[in-house]
Batch of 2 targets.
Target 1
Amino acid sequence: MLSVEQFLTLAAILFCIGLYGALTKRNIIIVLVSIELMLNAANINLLTFARFGLVPAINGQVFTLFAMTIAAAELAVGLAILIALYRNRNTSDVRDQDLMKW
Amino acid sequence: MFSGFAITGQSVAFFLISLFVIACGVLLLSLRKVMYMAMAIGGVFIGVAAVFLMLEAEFLAFIQVLLYAGAITIMLLFAIMLTRHDEVEMPQKLTAHPVWAAIGAAGLGFIVLWAVKFSGVKWPTPSAESPWQGEDNVKLIGESLFNQYVIPFELVSVVLIVALVGAITLAKKEEE
């Protein structure tokens, strides 16, 4: 028998892995990937409550679909920015991207 | 922790899947070569698709495989190949930054786990039978999408076209 808690626990662990990766990794691509990991954890939560919530409804799945679409668009723009940055500064290290740092 | 936990095929499958997902996530954090990290993230995406299947979201599981494990992983590999594909992350010196990041992530994790497990919140007991009674998942999503959510659906298409054009404009080589 599946329970709500186990899905929420898995999503929480996944979110924390993503958070740690986004905060510590040096390569911009890996930082972007870690953000995708956090979004995936949020999607698991949405689907858990769509299936096991007090009022099970299909709306949660539709919302997850929208979230995935926006995440894909975000990643496309992020990678384009990364390519432009790499062309201009010849590095893909986050610590070197301090053009807008105060 | 999971008191009164019955060992059924479903729960065994869940534990195997979550073990796979978390192992791939830890690999993503611990591997040094950027290329291998992209492979590990592909594993995470496939595992999450399996979790979606367990949550009876067949359509979304399929989309997850297509969009994340297929398109996004390949796009990441392209981006890695176009930049510095042989890059290796140096083992980090133990400075304050990763320590604070670890404390922050672990602290957030403990707060969420406490809220899930030990704060006394009564989660709804899941019903064994599906709330959708064998109705076609794709059909349900389609009906919902084109009746109730038709305006957000159209707006998302605008967002996608803007992102497409924006990505091309950003990545284009500027003329001299």
Note: Residues 135-176 of chain B form one domain.
Target 2
Amino acid sequence: MSGQLVAAEGLPWPPSVGDFYPPDLAGPWVTKFTLMVWLAVGILIIFFMATYRNPKLVPSKGQWYAESIYGLVRDNIAREQMGKDGIRFAPYFTVLFCFIAVTNLFGVTPGLQISPNSHIAFPIVLAAITYVMYLYIGVRKQGLGRYLKQSLIIPGVPWPMHFLLIPIEFLQNFINRPVTLAVRLFANMFAGHLILLVFTVGGFVMLASDNIFIQATSIFSFLMAILMAFFEVLVSLLQAYVFVTLTANYIGTSLADGH
Amino acid sequence: MYVAAEGVEHHPLVPIWQELVVGSIAFALLCFVLMKFVMPRMEAMYQARVDAIEGGLKRAEAAQAEANQLLEQYRAQLAEVRTEAAKIRDDARADAESIRTEILAKAREESDRIIAAGRDSLAVERQTIVRELRAEVGGLAVDLASRIVGESLADEARRKGTVERFLTDLESAGAR
């Protein structure tokens, strides 16, 4: 049945993992995904350079947009999570936020239609940077011993409990944090793309049916696809916010004294 | 039929290592450019704006306080001036009243004085007149009596004529 539909319309149905790995454009280095990442980098550099070439105290519209993003990350993420210390991390957080947001939004950008973050390699890079940052900052601020003690030993529990708690805390702080950070972003983008594929391609598949009722039902599929596209915009920005907020939180705990 | 049939099914949780490299380089470049050329200026601008706004607020507050103080001062002055004006008005009214009574008193005194002087002179005149009259009436009485006695009383007609003549003399003497 489904094989017949695919033959009729030429669309791969049902959507599968293979849809996330289009053929390379020119070898493994030049693919749609690597080009999208370069595109995001280019867009962000041009945007910030253009809007902040000649900053004024009373900002132009573009400058105001750039400053709003910076202000959001600076005040609502960095300062919220880390207090006054967080402000010196605000520049990195802003870059991180913008990069994730733009690459996520590629998932609903016409012509691109997929986010680079639905390939786990890119979330891994970003999560690894966060991981290294909070470990390095924790060790530098507190020294290796104190940092490990603070990360692993919960004060005020009976000592036999530590046999249970230290492995849990280790898993929590040194394994789960970076893995969940990467997988959360990846999975959101992966699932989002899959949902859009299901409703969009599914709509076309139903439209190609011989049955008039199934053809009529395709309208709901397309409506759902539109709704989900808007939902994806929300998810894109939210995931960028979550990623940066967690990064700030992790670095904040590395800087903090005590448990 | 499925993409798996094409033979390049990739496990989604296994990263493509070329993408790891490209992602790292691209993100590093982005971080370098933005954090070197844009973000420091943005933070500086942020601080400058905070300063400008806070400084402006402070200045506005100071100006407001000064204005309030001036207003208070002017109000106090105005109140002072008002009470002073009221006092001056009251004083003037009191002065006017006292001047009026004074003038009235003076005028009354003057008129009393004039009336008294008139009365005095009238009394003196009357005195003199009475004195003169008394002397004259005595003389006249003596005169009349001597004439009555000197002439014969027998003749009624003559007697009548004598009186007539006496009165005529009297009248002509008074007219004179």
Note: The two ends of chain A are 59 Å apart (CA to CA).
